[in-house]
Design a protein that fits this description.
The chain is 30% helix and 29% strand. It has 690 residues and is α+β, with helices and mostly antiparallel strands. 50% of the residues are buried.
């Protein structure tokens, strides 16, 4: 008897391409493993024998293989319509069983992975006829009826690990092999494939150019279902500490040989790789630790950006369930990321463009197309819709904003309700349950037909910011003009957090504007808010920091943006060598500037005060790079455009402020309105009254 093999079932209706997929997958796995392959069509007892064939397969083939024994079984003679010769299938390191019913309910306890193959009905029939010719045609309808009957009583689709939409274009075997790498049950045996996934080679080109980022993004990704633009939209006007945050912009989608996307909701992770989709359960940050945190590539010479391809997207606030918060279900995914195996990085300081691609058969073709797009894109100075170069507010009040649609937002809380919640938060502070409560609300509107792309261009023009971003994940669009860094981890282990607490609106009159800035700078209340969050973040970073490495290089500095002045501090630390980087991110999530202090108890208070989930708002947007670096912004000043479930879309904007013992309810509510102005005014909308 040999050790029990890993058994992978490839199931699906007839004609979906299971046999070809199984043969090709086995060929790839044989590069590193001994593989046995069993086809259920060899054991079905005739054209009406699906149920009996499944029973024979489970008892005479699967059961002994599961134990590591040889399987002795009798094949069916399709010409004589009777039992044929005896056969033996030997166990191997990996066994692939393929055919209708391979993952039937009686088989599943003995399987390590289930792959379900889908294809349109007309394509399935065409493939089956092309393979078996006239011998199958008289029996197609009868066999299909047996499949229907089986599926009516067997919930195999609910127990599928990987689903494949097989387009017969030759991509399915590679997509499935990559998907198998993500199943925890297979990771021990697939260690050679995992190692190959991490041993990637990076191709890079530098072009001396300063193309318009918006035109370049449209040229490359206008038709991409999933695409990300991490947009340093204030690069032209950034100075001081803001200049470091605003040097690079990153443009990418999930196309190409290595392209992938992942959605996580309430403990379930759904990963899409080409035509295959793999579903696993478990905490998101645990999943993140399996795909990020080790140095898989080296940056090219002369390249200063920390992003060397990898995962880009957002982490939603409700991931707090994994970091000490309660479990709240959001209407949008708790995380949405795409894996970019190729990307464009703009170096705004040096007026250069870097094209990055993982070595792959399609890499050179993409590099050529990207090179042409860079050369064709108009220079920034000539681009329509480029951010304003002035430090004053970009548009006066009353500007009609994007388009001509009438937008009327409603608030989850009326002014009186929000002020009442402020009073409750202050009662919690007085009772010693918290020191600071970052109370938020949400304003929403029915989308009258806004173009998400044009809406983002209007936002970035009105409110340029170092961490602006445009994320498109199918029907979900996130348009952010965030000025706040949540957490940066460099490849060599540097950690940096830059919380914002304290906000004042801008004024068109320079004298009034300067007075507002000075008022924020000297505000004892705002300084107290900021310092409390600095202390909270020092604690968050300390869990994985080298002892003694923590410093606060800036405390309560004021930075000015197009529509607001902000009070910003900077905390630096060194990550302990060998520390799990995904856990270091989780230890600081969600950003303390969006919860209050102490974090865990205050999140519980907020769950009682706020009347719904925050969703994307208050989470983080950014990247997790293949060189183990990450740079994440806090999701504020962000418009989320998502499906309403009835064919339309909902627009939502989260806003809030920090409540302390000496907060004035009227001033806090006015701060909420000020923070919403930059987004709502760009859409030609106003903050709801009442």
């Amino acid at each position: 008897m040999t050790p029990a093999p890993v058994i992978i079932a490839i199931d699906g209706r007839s004609g979906a391409g299971k046999t070809t997929l199984a043969v090709e997958l086995a060929a790839r796995l044989r590069m590193h493993h001994k593989v046995s392959l069993f086809h259920l069509e060899d054991i079905y007892p005739g054209w009406n024998g699906l149920a009996a064939g499944i029973e024979r397969y489970v008892t005479t083939v699967l059961a002994p293989l599961r134990k590591g024994d040889a399987a002795e079984w009798v094949s069916w003679d399709w010409e004589k319509h009777y039992d044929g010769r005896s056969n033996v299938t030997l166990p191997a390191e990996i066994v692939i069983v393929e055919g209708v019913g391979a993952a039937a309910s009686d088989a599943r306890p003995m399987l390590d992975a289930v792959v379900w193959v889908d294809a349109p009905d007309d394509e399935r029939r065409h493939r089956a006829m092309a393979r078996d010719g006239s011998s199958y045609e008289p029996f197609w309808d009868g066999w299909a009826a047996q499949e229907d009957k089986w599926l009516e009583t067997d919930d195999v689709l609910d127990h599928t690990d990987i689903r494949v939409l097989n387009r017969a274009d030759g991509n399915a075997p590679d997509d499935v092999l990559q998907s198998l790498n993500y199943l925890p049950s297979l990771s021990p045996v697939l260690s050679p494939e995992l190692s190959a996934r991490r041993g990637l080679q990076l191709k890079a080109e530098r072009i001396a150019a300063a193309p318009d980022p918006a035109a370049l993004f449209q040229a490359l990704y206008a038709t991409s279902a999933n695409a990300v633009w991490l947009d340093s939209s204030n690069a032209a006007v950034a100075s001081g500490a803001a200049a470091e945050r605003s040097r690079f912009s990153i443009l990418a989608d999930d196309g190409g040989s290595f392209g992938q996307s992942v959605m996580h909701s309430s403990g379930a992770t759904r990963l899409s790789i080409g035509c295959a989709t793999v579903e696993t359960t478990g905490p998101f940050f645990r999943w993140l630790d399996t795909v990020w945190g080790r140095k898989a590539v080296r940056p090219p010479a002369g390249y200063d950006c920390e992003f060397t391809l990898g995962w880009l997207g957002y982490l939603g606030y409700e991931l707090k369930r994994e970091t000490g918060g309660s479990d709240v279900r959001a209407g949008t995914p708790d995380a949405a990321l795409l894996f970019a195996g190729r990307a464009v990085v703009l170096d705004h300081r040096d007026a250069a463009v870097w094209l990055l691609a993982v070595e792959a058969p399609d890499a050179d073709d993409w590099l050529g197309r990207a090179r042409g797009a860079v050369q064709s894109a108009a220079p920034v100075a000539q681009a329509a819709g480029a951010p304003q170069a002035s430090g004053a507010p970009a548009h006066p009040a009353g500007d009609p904003g994007v388009g001509h649609q009438t937008l009327e937002f409603s608030s989850r809380d009326t002014e009186d309700e929000y002020k009442a919640k402020i009073a409750i938060a202050q009662e919690q502070i007085a009772e010693g349950n918290t020191y600071e409560v970052c109370l938020t609300t949400t304003v929403t509107a029915t989308d009258p037909g806004l173009d998400p792309w044009e809406s983002y261009l209007a936002l970035r023009k009105r409110n340029p910011a170092p961490f602006a971003s445009y994320l498109r994940f199918g029907e979900l669009t996130v348009a952010s003009t965030s000025p706040e860094r949540f957490l940066r981890i460099t490849s060599d282990g540097g950690m940096k957090a830059e919380p914002i607490k304290g906000t004042r609106g801008r004024a068109a009159d320079p004298g009034i504007d300067e007075a507002l800035r000075r008022g924020l700078e000297s505000s004892l209340k705002d300084r107290a808010e900021n310092i409390m969050i600095v202390d909270l973040l020092r604690n968050d970073l300390s869990h994985f920091a080298v002892p003694g490495s923590m410093t606060v290089s800036r405390l309560c500095a004021v930075e000015s943006y197009a529509t607001v002045h902000q009070m910003v501090s900077t905390i630096d630390a060194r990550l302990r060598p060998g520390a799990p980087r995904a856990e270091a991110v989780a230890a600081a999530f969600p950003a303390g500037s969006m919860t209050g202090a102490p974090k865990i108890s205050t999140m519980g208070i907020l769950d009682g005060l706020e009347s719904g989930p925050r969703g994307v708002y208050s989470g983080a947007i950014g990247y997790f790079s293949l060189n183990a670096a990450a740079d994440l912004a806090v999701v504020i000043r962000t418009l989320v455009m998502s499906s309403d479930g009835d064919g339309g879309r909902t627009l939502s904007l989260g806003v809030g402020g920090a409540i302390t013992a000496d907060s004035n309810a009227g001033e806090e509510y006015e701060e909420v309105r000020t923070k919403a102005f930059g987004v709502l005014s760009a859409l030609g909308a106003e903050f709801p009254e009442g």
